[in-house]
Structure formats: structure tokens, C-alpha cells
Amino acid sequence: MHDNANTESTDIAFEQSIYLFNRGENFDSYLTLGCTAAENGFRFTVWAPNAQNVFVVGDFNQWQEEAAMEMDLETGVWSMTIPEARNGDHYKYKIIQADGKVVYKIDPYAFVFEVRPKDASVVKALPHRKWSDGLWMANRKRRRIYERPLNIYEVHMSSWKQHEDGSWYTIPELQDELIRYVKEMGYTHIEFMPLMEHPLDASWGYQVTGFYALSSKFGTMENFQDFVEAAHQQNIGVIMDWVPGHYNRNDYGLAYYDGTPQFEYTDKNRAVNNRWGTLNFDLGKAQVHSFLISNALYWVEQFHLDGLRVDAVSNMLYLDYDEGEWTPNEDGTNHNREGVSFIQKMNKVLFERHPDLLVMAEESTAWKKVTHPVHEGGLGFNYKWNMGWMNDTLRFFEMDPIDRKHQFNLITFSFMYTFDENFVLPISHDEVVHGKKSLMHKMFGDRYNQFAGLRTLETFKMMHPGKKLQFMGSEYGQFLEWKYAEGLEWVDLEDPVNRTHLNFTKQLNQFYKEEKALWELDHQKEGMEILDASHNEETILFFIRKGKKARDFLIVLCNFVPVERQDVRVGVPYKGQYEEVWNTEAESLGGTWTVGQGVLKTEPISRHGYDHSVKLILPALSVTVLKPKRIYGVPK
Predict the structure, then answer these.
(1) Which of 119, 362, 475, 580 is catalytic?
(2) Which of 311, 431, 481, 522 is catalytic?
(3) pLDDT tens track for 32-48
(4) Known catalytic residue: 89?
(5) Which of these, 26, 89, 144, 329, is most buried using a 10 Å CB contact count?
(6) pTM of the model as a whole
């Protein structure tokens, strides 16, 4: 009687789970669908509503179809329990599709796959882990990330470092070396490019087949859980790129799974992504909602990730974002209303469960309210990559300094909108690949001026409102652009110039963390004051960054051309003494200045709306930062 009661209870829970899955409301669907541990073996459950028949074939039945799975006609879900199945067994679904075609498909919910080029799903019971990062997780809940430093190191896992024979580092090897490096360099978070199962390295992980599986080329689930836990124990957060908009179209994957448009749109113009050679998820379908939102929560909850950077959001927002023909709405507009609704729903669910999560949009258009709450008509993200700032700034620094005065708006335009959203300032992998050259190689001039330009660019980024992201290799000025199949050019660090630049980055990261003015009011207009942005001819820019307390402020003086400016007078908020706390031309940072400018005393000469000012030299192609040392009249 007791066993029957347990079985009946299990069946009711299963039916309820499938009911919610079909309504788009099952946000833990990976606990029911896929291959899940049962009292006697493993239960296999797959959604394939228009298939004629489905079989599970694998090591446990010598890859022979024995009995067809049972289908619930109302739900389109097939299920069966196989007592012989064991952890580590390989399997696939043999599907008789709607038109009678026989195909072998992966399990969309598989936690593990064979190592490529093989593609079978692997039986795996979800590990029940006792975590040891409770202090980090508790602190994460208490901290207001908007008012904290956020400085992200972006990493492509298999090309950060490789062994001499070209083989990848395992996750345990990375755990020892990468976490230590990131901590020493002063970054706050690591962001990994996608780690899910994908068949082609050239896609960098952005064309996913197995959304619930860590790519077997990297290691095991437990390996990655260990990595995140170890990072947290060193006060380093971990973020991962996530791709909910589209997926790999290989035949064995999600593509036309039951022989009909299932995960993808029925309209070919909406389903086919020509630019990337993929298929777009049907974001209006309830089961796709359950699949994708569960997937986000799976990575956050099973791996304790601190955030997700959501890739290609623009592709989910616009019907005409792709190349080629597109189907407009009935009224002729181009907004993907289903995509907008899905994004809002996803973000509401994520933040209801995890209010302290980072959910960042990689969104390249001028869509409004990306980081505003859903109830205010926003998309509900809490951060957006500032692609406009990135593109304008890089274009400016690649330019001959003689021409910069004519394009000065590339530097100043971002101040017009910088508080419209919660921004991250990224200089990411996309900017140092496909012939675009490395960040150092983009800089204009000879080698000295390239590094001077790089110091100026990186310091300007750090002083500008918004959180920060830097792609691996840029921190020491790698000359060659990124190659996804090879390790970084660590040999560059044999050159003293590159070693000095690595030290510059380390010092800049530390300076950023120590100065509250650079992050306490990052997303509020009160956190910044423009002193002078009108000197196009000289190509200089002055502004103040402010913290919550009146005394916490920094005066930032940018000289964007390799011409030293003598006797420059700058208005300051208070009478007293100011000291130079940062100078990109200091010899210790790679420049030529052996002595700083010391303490600067104010004079009662009006400038920039203030009654007092200081006079100093602006080194050629540099950023100088002043901090109050002893000032008078500061409100408490």
C-alpha cells in the first residue's frame, strides 16, 4: 500500500510538471524532462508532439528498439522508465517523424554528451552537491551591485592558455591558474564565453546543441561546480554567456525535432537565421518558454553562477535584424512582440528567484528601457553592454591624432545617454578578431604611442560612468589578434614593455576598486559633472566623478593627442590642495615621467563655474587624475 501511494504521488507530480511545461510555466523542467533518476533505473521523457513514434536506444539495450515510449496525446510528451540504464550509458532518441522519416536525435535536456565529434547523450544523475561558498552567496545578497565595483575579465576557456602540445587546459588546471591570475590582477568577476555543448569551435560556443550540458571538451559538471566554488572562495564572481535566441541547426540536434517546426517558428523567414546559419527559437511557444527559462535557472542554481550575459538580444527584439527576407507584423512594424514578451517574462522569473543576479543584455540598437523594470515598460535586464560607447571610442583611438579634433563627438557623445541605462563598458572578444586587430594593434602611431594610447583608452574607460569589461590578452597589450584555436601570446610577457603594461592594468584595477567615486553613483547623474567638453581643437576633456560623500571625488583630465599642454588651468569645487593620484605617463606605468606634479594649491581664479582653480601640465596622450588632499568648505 505504501509503495502504491508513493508511485501515485510521483505520477501526480510528473503530470503536474508536464502540465506546467505545456503552459510555459515550468521553470524547473529539467527535473522532469530528459533523463532523470528513478527508483528503478532512469526515466526518459521527451517532448515531440508530432512524432509518429519514439524509442530510446543506447548501451543499455544494445542500441536496439525494444519498446516504444508511451505518449500522452494531450501533452505531446513521450516517457518510459528503463531499469537497465546506468550512469555513463550513451543513448539517443530514435524518432519516427511526422512524415515517417527515421532520425536519431540528442536529448534536449541531457546533462552530458560524448566528447566530440561523437554526439550521443549520456545518462547522468543530477549531482546533489554540498556547497562551501556560503559566505560569498550571503554577501552577494547583501551587496547592492549598482554601488559596488564591477570589473569583468572576459575569457574564452579553451584559448586562455594551452599546453605546449596545443591541448586544452582542463577545468581543474584552469581553476588553479586562472582564478589566481584574476585575483592578482584585481578583477572582480570572470565572464566565460558560452560553455554549453557545441559542435564547432569556430562558433566560439554561440551555436549550441546541448543547452543543459557543459561541453564535454571542457570537463564534467562537477569540475565546473568546483571551479565556481573555488572562485567564490577567492571573492571572484563567475558570469557566463547564454544564447537563448537561436541554436545550431545540425540534424541530430533540436532542428525540426519531430519533423515539424517544434522549437523553431513555422514561418521560415522567422525560423531561419541566415546571418549565423542557425535556427531561431519560437519565442511565442509556451514549451520553449519552459525550456529556456528553466535553462537559465539551471545554470544559475546548479552551478551558483552570479550572472548571465544574454547574447544577441537584438535578434530577439526585431523581425528584420537578420539578413534577407523578413515577415513584418500585420501593421507593418518590425518589433518581435513575442520576443519582447519572452524577455520580460524571463527577467521577471529570474529576479523573483534571485534578486541579486546579474542579467546583462548584449543589445546593439537604441531600444529604450533595456535595463528598466518590466512594470515600467522595460525589458527587465539590470545591465546592458554599451556597444555605442565601445564602437565610438575604438574608432576615435584608431584615428590619426591630427584628425581627432574633427571627430571629438565620438568621445563626448556617450555623456548624452550614459545614465539612460545601467551600462557595462565592454571591449570584448568581438573587437579583436576577424582582421580587426588586437586592441594594442588598433592604437595609432609607433610602438611607444600605441601603448600610450592603450593606457589612455583603458584609463578613460575606467573613469567613465558604467561597469567595466576587458577581454583576455588586452591586459598586457598582446599584439596579435585573438585566435580561438590557440592560446594567448603569453610569450609577449618576455618583453619588458608588455610586462610593464600588465603592471599598469593591475594598478589601474586596484585604483578603480579603491576609489568610491568610480562606482558608488555609477548610474546616477549626481555621479558625474562635465567641466569642459568643448576643447575640440586641443582635444582635451575634463570631468569629475563623484561618490556619495562630498569629499569623495576625482577630477579627470584627458589629453587625447600626443602633444603636451602647458599651464592648463582647471576649475575645482573647493579651495585647498589637490594631488595627482594617477598619471598614465608615469614611468612606473610605462610612460616617461619620472617625477609627478606634486601637491597643487588652488588659486582664486575662476574656471569651469568654480571660484578656485589649479594649474598643471597635461602630458602628451594621457589621462591625469587629481584627488582632494586638504580642502575647505566641504559639507559633512
Answers:
(1) 362
(2) 311
(3) 999 999 989 999 999 99
(4) no
(5) 26
(6) 0.96
